[in-house]
Design brief:
Elements: E1 5-11, H1 17-26, E2 34-39, H2 46-52, E3 56-59, H3 67-76, E4 83-87, E5 92-93, H4 98-104, E6 111-119, H5 126-135, E7 141-143, H6 148-151, E8 162-166, H7 167-172, H8 184-194, E9 198-208, H9 215-231, H10 233-239, H11 243-260, H12 265-282, H13 291-297, H14 302-307
Parallel strand pairs: 1-2, 1-4, 2-3, 6-9
Antiparallel strand pairs: 4-8, 5-9, 6-8, 7-9
Helix pairs in contact: 5-11, 9-12, 11-12
């Protein structure tokens, strides 16, 4: 592959996993040509370890970080990169050829973006493990706009925890949104598909990446997802709503837990209720609530300081 590749990693206090992350990256069979770390003023040695590993490091304030804007600033800072690769600090490359296999999807000129498989961390709980197994199957996929009839809103599913974009495609749709509460990857995926590009999922390119959210964070995360979809109505208008996919997830989760951890079924049902409530409150309801209260309910609180004045 002759394309120049740039890697962008946003970080904040990467902690104990960071040294393992850097070791897994050092073992890759294909290395990006440009390495950029955008660090939100970590108080640990995240930035120092990255510099020692050959990364260019940019320091920003915590309040300056934004899911879309920060990543787009990284893209703008790597103008020679034909392919822009993203990883997060908690996504541990699972195999030495993970990056190589993800980049291989761009041999198809129709691919505008690609993302890899996410496996649960070895210490993941059953609920967090199921979420990864449900959303990231072993089979690779190539999805275009015409596939929305089959996949619905899942057509635009992607994760910047381990994803790559063809720079020309990304910039042709305006790049990442500069101030979005989350899901900047979904936003761009939708724009790419509408503009004729395809989205590749590589089941062979994997990272270990999972979360065991507490009850409050489940609510807050889905509150933010509701906010995102309220501000991007074109996504559901084009690709369909999320209700059907949500029901499919709940049924799958209950079946998984019945087999592997039946004692967690009450917890899963409570989480489902909190997710639904969070999504509904983050939907149209958030427009009727004071921004201070929205900030309290949100997982990404800094967004509300930029999104609108106090009311």
């Amino acid at each position: 592959m002759n394309s120049k590749v740039g890697l962008i990693v946003p970080t904040l206090n990467a902690g104990q996993l960071w040294s393992s992350w850097l070791q897994a990256f050092a073992a890759q069979t294909v290395k990006p040509d440009f390495l950029l770390l955008i660090d939100s003023s970590s108080s640990d040695d995240t930035a120092a370890q990255a510099r020692a590993a050959g990364f260019e490091v940019q320091i920003i304030s915590k309040s300056e970080f934004n899911h879309g804007g920060t990543r787009q600033s990284g893209v703008n800072g790597l103008p020679e990169a034909d392919i822009v690769l993203f990883l997060t600090q908690d996504a541990l490359l699972a195999n030495p050829d993970a990056i190589e296999k993800l980049l291989a999807t761009f041999a198809d000129d129709s691919v505008g973006a690609a993302y890899g498989r996410q496996l649960p961390h070895r210490n993941a709980g059953p609920i967090g493990a199921h979420a990864r197994l449900f959303n990231y199957p072993a089979q690779s996929q190539l999805r275009g706009l015409a596939d929305s009839a089959r996949f619905g809103i899942k057509t635009v599913f992607i994760s910047n925890s381990f994803a790559a974009y063809r720079r020309s495609a990304l910039m042709s749709v305006g790049g990442f949104p500069l101030n979005t509460i989350m899901n900047e990857d979904t936003f761009v995926a939708g724009k790419l598909l509408i503009n004729g590009w395809k989205l590749a999922y590589s089941g062979d390119a994997a990272v270990f990446h999972s979360h065991d959210y507490g009850f409050a964070d489940e609510f807050r995360r889905y509150f933010d997802i509701g906010v995102f979809h309220t501000h991007t109505p074109w996504l559901q208008q084009t690709f369909g709503g999320a209700a059907g996919e949500g029901l499919r997830f709940v049924i799958s989760e209950l079946r998984y837990l019945r087999k592997n951890a039946p004692w967690l079924i009450p917890s899963a049902l409570l989480r489902t209720g909190l997710k639904w409530l969070g999504f509904k409150m983050g939907g149209a309801l958030h427009r009727k609530m004071p921004s201070r209260f929205n900030r309290f309910l949100s997982l990404h609180k800094a967004y509300w300081l930029r999104a609108m004045p106090e009311n």
